[in-house]
Design a protein that fits this description.
five-stranded antiparallel β-sheet
Length: 361
């Protein structure tokens, strides 16, 4: 006799039938791959994609330039595979933009590019150059005002947004599930205390609360995780409390109490697994909100600090180009934020529909 499909198996079947949810999952999957392995295929694989070449600052998409590779005086230590995946590979050479070049005995004579109509003649010893001294690069999305490759910083910036989303959602779920579960299950004074705390935090504007936490903890990469995470648990706690209040009166919970199971076991093994669906939906929504809040804080200068390539920080550094000659510098990270948030919203909507008991299998 064939057993009926499990609830989660049926849920996954419904989810994969939802084209919007599948599209969102594909975008999220590609973003995770980019975040993990971005340094291996980014045009600029230096730490934080922070290769500054001031002479080519503010160039438009498709800009092409030739460079002479000059050995650095102090050669950096070359990292291993895992270290390169996490932090990038320091440049062994300085990139000198050139217009033209030719060899003269043991030297390379170049016209160093300074501006569109300005160059400078230089003579460089071949011993101070790379084995292949001249390289040609295409900047598909142009360069920012510091001459850094926008595409590379966009790629590496993916891990900032995903890291903020993941860790803040983890913090918000941990705090929200704990407080919501004990408030809903035990009721009485415990529930009143939890709801009082929820109402106090709920009454404070989210951005103002994030400002306060950020100013208290200071600016930086890890501080932004805590600041955003500690302001997003309220919606989780309210949801979990309501679900626990409805679930704790069901027969299987009453049976667990009658068998003498402890309250912690009943909550962890009998109640929470059965309310996991709504929690996943709100987690996807909070992930999208965390990305937007981080971008906003970085744009205001109190989030991720330079030279880390946060998308919000990239918009802040280049937003003045929108009304001048090169709007792509600010529009590219803005589009990346929109696409990733849209993907999480699609996935959240798909989860909501797949977990609905009214959905057809």
């Amino acid at each position: 006799m064939n057993s009926s499909p499990s609830f989660w198996h049926t849920t996954w079947k419904r989810l994969w039938k939802n084209k919007g949810a599948v599209a969102g999952l594909i975008i999220i999957g590609l973003s995770i791959f980019t975040a993990l392995f971005g340094y291996f295929f980014a045009p600029d694989s230096s730490p934080f994609a922070n290769r500054i070449i001031l002479e080519i600052g503010g160039q438009k998409p498709g800009f092409r330039q030739s460079f002479v590779l000059v050995k650095k005086v102090l050669q950096p230590r070359q990292p291993g595979l895992l270290e390169q995946m996490a932090y990038g590979r320091p440049d062994k050479y300085d990139y000198v933009p050139v217009v033209n070049w030719h060899r003269e005995s043991d030297s390379l004579v170049v016209q160093k590019y300074i501006d569109e109509d300005l160059s400078e003649r230089m003579s460089l010893a071949l011993s101070a150059l790379a084995p292949e001294p001249v390289v040609h690069k295409i900047f598909l999305l142009g360069t920012d005002k510091f001459g850094r490759d926008i595409l590379s910083r966009l790629i590496i910036g993916t891990r900032i947004s995903l890291s903020v989303g993941f860790i803040t959602v983890l913090i918000s779920l941990t705090v929200g599930i704990f407080l919501g579960a004990i408030g809903g299950y035990f009721g009485g004074k415990t529930d009143e205390l939890v709801m009082w705390l929820v109402n106090v935090i709920w009454s404070i504007p989210t951005l103002l609360l994030v400002f306060a936490v950020t100013l208290l903890l200071g600016k930086g990469f890890w501080q932004i995780f805590i600041a955003v995470g500690l302001t997003m648990w309220v919606s989780v706690a309210r949801l979990v409390r309501g679900q626990v209040l409805a679930t704790k009166e069901l027969q299987y919970v009453e049976a667990a109490r009658a068998l003498g199971f402890s309250s912690s076991r009943i909550i962890l093994r009998h109640i929470l697994p059965n309310i996991l669906g709504p929690i996943l939906v709100i987690a996807a929504s909070n992930f999208a909100s965390a990305i937007i809040i981080e971008a906003g804080l970085s744009f205001l200068g109190i989030g991720v600090q330079p030279p880390q390539p946060s998308w919000g920080l990239m918009i802040k550094e280049n937003y003045n180009f929108i009304i001048t000659q090169n709007p792509v510098l600010a529009l590219a990270p803005g589009f990346a934020i929109m696409l990733l948030v849209f993907a999480f919203n699609l996935m959240g909507n798909g989860l909501r529909d797949a977990l609905s008991v009214r959905s057809s299998p």
